[in-house]
Each structure stands twice: as C-alpha cells, then as structure tokens.
C-alpha cells in the first residue's frame, strides 16, 4: 500500500510539472478552457501607451506637476573669534576684521494648492530664509513670499506671482486606511523630482516630540532630506499628507516617514490664507502624564486623565478655579487620556467660548465652566 501511494504521488507531481511547463512555454498546445491564467494580464492602454498591471503612472502623472522645488538662502554672520580680542595677539598680528557674513542654502519641496499661486510646505523648510525661490515642474522659477506660518504644526504657506498653475486635488482622510498604497513626491537630496511608493504603516502617530501638535500618517515610502514639504498622495493622485519628517539615526531613510494629514494641513492653510495666522484655544495650564507611581502617590484610582502640574496666574484656567494637583478627565464630554490629547482638545476650541471641564480633585469630581482664551504664539506647553 505504501508503494502504491508513492507511485501515485510521484505521478501527480510529474503531471503537474508537465502541465505548468506546457502552459508557460506553449499555451497554444492546451485546449481552450484548460490554460493556466497568466499572472499578469494585459491592461487597457492610456493615450495609446500600454499600461502594466499595478502601475501608478496615472497617479504620478496627475500629481507631479503640482509638486515644486523650494530653494532658500539665509545670510548668517560668523562670530568673531575671541582670540582676536586678546591684546597680546593684536599687538603681534594687528587688527583683524569683524566676522564675515556667509550665506546658508537649503532645499525642500512644496505643493501647489491653488491655481493662483498658493503653495503649502513645511515651516522648517523656509524658517529664517532671506530669499525663497520656487521651481515648478516645467522648469520655471519664481520668487516666493511668505503668506503665514504655523511653527507648532510645522506648516507654512507661500505665494508666487503666477496664475493657471496645476493645483493638487485634495483627498479625504476618512477614506485612508492602514495598508493603502501611497506615493511620496519631492526633491530628495536635490537630485530632482522623485516619486517613491509604499503603504500607510499607521495613522494618528503622536508623542514623537517633532511638533507641538502631532497626528501623523506613518509610511514606509522612502522619504529623505529634500522631501520635506512635498506631497504624499494616494493611488489616484489625491493629496493625503504633507511629508514632514523621517525616523533615522544616520539621516538616511529607514522606512519610517511621517506626514501631516491633509485634513489638518488644509484647515491650517485656510486659516493662514484668510488671516495670516492660526488661532487655537488655550487655558494656561501645564500638564503631565499620570504614571502608576504618580497615581499611587496622589491616591488616584487609575492613570486616566492629565495631571495639572501648574496654572498660569490670571489665565482662563486660574479664573475658572483650576488648581495644581487637579486631574483633567474630559473636555466637553470628550475623554482626556493624556496631556497630548488634552492639548489637542483645547486647541480645537474657539477663543471666548465656554467649555465644560470635568476634573478630579482629591476624591471628588468637579464640573467647571472655563472660558477659553487664545493660545499665545510659539508656546509648546499648555
């Protein structure tokens, strides 16, 4: 019986090998209906050109013209060496000139968001720049001016004097899921416009210490220096994020890149275009995460919420009666799980409106109404 089974198994193996070989090399020898389907079927052509299966050329073709290169220069005054101020040195070597000026240059990318010249990019791309030049996909170069910036989200809006520009199409964050294919477009290392492909590795990444407000798309699409401010687009070529940072110990790509979601970027962009700045809510507290050790020290039942470590005098929180040692549990019914969530919830509120704060003080639960203030610029702590 064992011998019969071996003969049968060998016969089946040889038969399958023959069928596979014939179907691959001479499929016409097989009768219709018995041919093995090829792994890659012919796809319809576009503009007379054959399109390979799983190609993203259409997405790249539609979005590439909307991504620009940004070149910046900054004049920096070199410090005079302390040795030149030494009297003995000056006696033997004479006077030396003051520190000379030198010019630093930088490069990055940007995305055309309107046909009349508005461009979205990262704040760190143009920070401190004296001169900003924008090069379009067709080679034309324009001098750009800064419309407004938001350092806390690392976004900036530029404008060039041009019209009829190829603006990007905005995508929908609600449709983006982990595993979706995305393309990163930019100017890495200044080599020229480049497209890399990957997937969405994670959504809602925060606590990275990159920006004050963080809600990143994580992707393994190759992002390198020079890609900052460029477009992260979906498989249809719609903008889903602004490439911002990479996780790297060497400065090169390790397959972990971060992009600001288009929903956040668009909201901030619209505020900057309308008023030149971004308005966020603020109450004037400093908060810290509740660890198990802190919970035990304060006699808290769990680690939920954000511990109020300090309150700014005469701030909205101070006037409402918030005290150091309180634990903020929710804002307008939305749970506060840690200080970052607290920061985001308060920032979303409009100045001068009232919000319901639920706090734990000692072993009691308090409900306070807090009139929201306007967040001061360049503040990293609440």
From TrEMBL:
Residues 272-338 form the PDZ domain. It is an enzyme of class 3 (hydrolase). SMART domains: PDZ (SM00228). It is found in: Periplasm. Its main location: periplasm. SUPFAM superfamilies: PDZ domain-like, Trypsin-like serine proteases. Its EC number is 3.4.21.107. Transmembrane segments: none annotated. It holds the Pfam family PDZ_6. GO terms for molecular function: hydrolase activity. Keywords: Hydrolase, Periplasm, Protease, Repeat, Serine protease, Signal. NCBIfam families: degP_htrA_DO (TIGR02037). This is Do family serine endopeptidase.
């Amino acid at each position: 019986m064992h011998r019969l089974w071996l003969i049968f198994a060998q016969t089946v193996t040889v038969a399958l090998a023959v069928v596979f070989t014939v179907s691959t090399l001479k499929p016409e020898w097989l009768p219709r209906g018995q041919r093995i389907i090829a792994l890659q079927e012919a796809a319809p052509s576009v503009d007379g050109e054959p399109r390979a299966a799983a190609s993203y050329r259409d997405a790249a073709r539609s979005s590439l013209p909307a991504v620009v290169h940004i070149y910046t220069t900054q004049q920096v005054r070199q410090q005079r060496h302390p040795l030149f101020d030494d009297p003995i040195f000056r006696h033997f070597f004479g006077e030396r000139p003051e520190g000379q000026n030198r010019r630093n240059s930088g490069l990055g990318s940007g995305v055309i968001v309107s046909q009349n010249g508005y461009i979205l990019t990262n704040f760190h791309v143009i920070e401190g720049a004296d001169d900003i030049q924008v090069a379009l996909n067709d080679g034309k170069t324009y001098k750009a001016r800064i419309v407004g910036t938001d350092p806390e989200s690392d976004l900036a809006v530029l404008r060039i004097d041009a019209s009829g520009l190829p603006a990007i199409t905005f995508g929908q964050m609600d449709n983006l899921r982990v595993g979706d294919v995305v393309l990163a477009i930019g100017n890495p290392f200044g080599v020229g416009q480049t497209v890399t492909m990957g997937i969405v590795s994670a959504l809602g990444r925060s606590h990275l210490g990159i920006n004050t407000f963080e809600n990143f798309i994580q992707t393994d699409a190759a992002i390198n220096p020079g890609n900052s401010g460029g477009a992260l687009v979906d498989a249809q070529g719609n903008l889903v994020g602004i490439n911002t940072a990479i996780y790297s110990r060497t400065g090169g790509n390790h397959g972990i890149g971060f992009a600001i979601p288009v929903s956040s970027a668009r909201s901030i962009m619209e505020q900057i275009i309308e008023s030149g700045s971004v308005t966020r809510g603020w109450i004037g507290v400093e908060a810290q995460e509740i660890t198990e050790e802190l919970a035990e020290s304060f006699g808290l039942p769990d680690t939920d919420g954000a511990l109020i470590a300090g309150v700014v005098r005469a701030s909205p929180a101070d006037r409402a009666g918030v005290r150091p040692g309180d634990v903020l549990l929710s804002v307008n019914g939305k749970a506060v799980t840690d200080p970052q969530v607290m920061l985001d919830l308060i920032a979303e509120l409009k100045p001068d409106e009232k919000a319901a704060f639920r706090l734990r003080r000692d072993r009691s639960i308090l409900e306070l109404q807090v009139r929201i203030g306007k967040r001061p610029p360049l503040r990293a702590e609440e």
